[in-house]
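Q: Could you predict the 3D structure of CPNE7 protein?
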Amino acid sequence: QAPLAVLSKVELRVSCKHLLDRDTLNKSDPCVLLLMQSQGQWMEVDRSEVIKSNLNPVFAKIFTVDYYFEEVQKLRFEVYDSHGHAGVGTHDDDFLGGMECTVGQIVAQKRVTKPLFLKYGKFAGKSTITVISEEISGNNGYVELAFRAKKLDDKDLFSKSDPFLEIYRIDDDRSEQLVYRTEVVKNNLSPIWEPFKVSLNSLCSCEEKRKLRCVVWDYDSRGKHDFIGEFFTTFEEMQKAMGENKVQWDCMNPKYKIKKRNYKNSGVVVLLDLKIHRVYSFLDYIMGGCQIHFTVAIDFTASNGDPRNSCSLHYINPYQPNEYLKALVAVGEICQDYDSDKKFSALGFGARIPPKYEVSHDFAINFNPDNDECEGIQGVVESYQSCLPKIQLYGPTNVAPIISKVARVAADEERTKEASQYFILLILTDGVVTDMADTREAIVRASYLPMSIIIVGVGNADFTDMQILDGDDGILRSPKGEPVLRDIVQFVPFREFKNASPTALAKCVLAEVPKQVVEYYSYKAFPPRCPQPETPDSNLSSPQ
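A: Sure. Here are the predicted structure tokens for CPNE7 protein:
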């Protein structure tokens, strides 16, 4: 089953009405957990903040989930009454109710309201939960905003106000959608709130002129917050705060405005800084001229069998390519479209090589130590076939040296601070690697560089241990316990694709690469390069 392409990401916002009151003295302090079903098990994905003393909470937390059109993705929302430091208790007496649905239902309906159920299908009184979904579109960036206020009205008798700020987006149907709620700054009439990030989609539906309502409240631990004042603005107006400029608004209380003759405001809110971050796609990087450099590494250990024998995995049959060649061609043909010079590095490991017949774990199969590149996939195939008679298959199966070799080139590339070259290393091997500790260390180092590693297991060995390297289940760690920065390894046994088309293998092993490329450049904050003007002869479509 080839991994499905992520169609898009979806943001979910949650609110509840008429929650059960579990606390004797004051109201429940609700928190929502989001669980997703994976292989029949419910796994917690994320949880919201705790809202104090409120039976009708609107949570500020935005849950982000990947949306696959072709899959039924089951979600479960569970609401609990939280007890401060102990975190969210999962005892039955703290359970305020749950609701199950699918991502597809929420996306199709955009807004789902359902009753909350306690255990054994009992209704949780009149409690309901509402989930609103928004797709994060491709051209969507996010903004970082930093607000402060000055001289707010004092609402507290014995101390100063404890202000927090809420931003609402006003939708076309005049309904208001909570975009963000800041933290509370205690006992301060001129608070400086922490900077925060929101997506442009959630802030203003990517429309700069959409109206926003910003409200300042004085926090009350019993949930009865006092209204200090409000103001209206747009993202267009906020953008004046870029660079050295600041934008400020009068924070108004409409009641005071009517009552008090010389009322000016209830304080001023200042936007100190605004930064816009674009979110780029894989295609943005490719179209900006990022080249994918492809390296193949071939296992020449003795366990493959003598290449002259027809049972050998390296046997060259004039009528039928062996598994090494099939895997190489399937993956290489896709990668070559993204590499303008069509030159591929081809390396071998685990053999004794001429002239001295010493074991090497990273030799060029064209035997040119100064330039291990071959012309196109065909060049790699020819070098592979001509090197087989010249080498002695040996061992052990050490792949760390090759990972480190490609990583050195990728590290030089990283220093350019541009999204200009990304490296894919395809390792073809017939067995479990011998230097597992060194390999794990090398992968952790490589996860900080512009590279991805694809491992295809050839033949019928037991590859169970190789699955460890593919961090999909748990997080791969170095022997010292350091985790990978990003999951960069994809492992598949070739035998699962023996009877499938070559495209199925390529689709499976390359499915993760676009995401890995974007993750790397986003982490580094490298934008795509500007698309270069085409030179007349550089990109004429030559017949493939």
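Q: Anything worth pointing out?
A: The chain has a mean pLDDT of 88.
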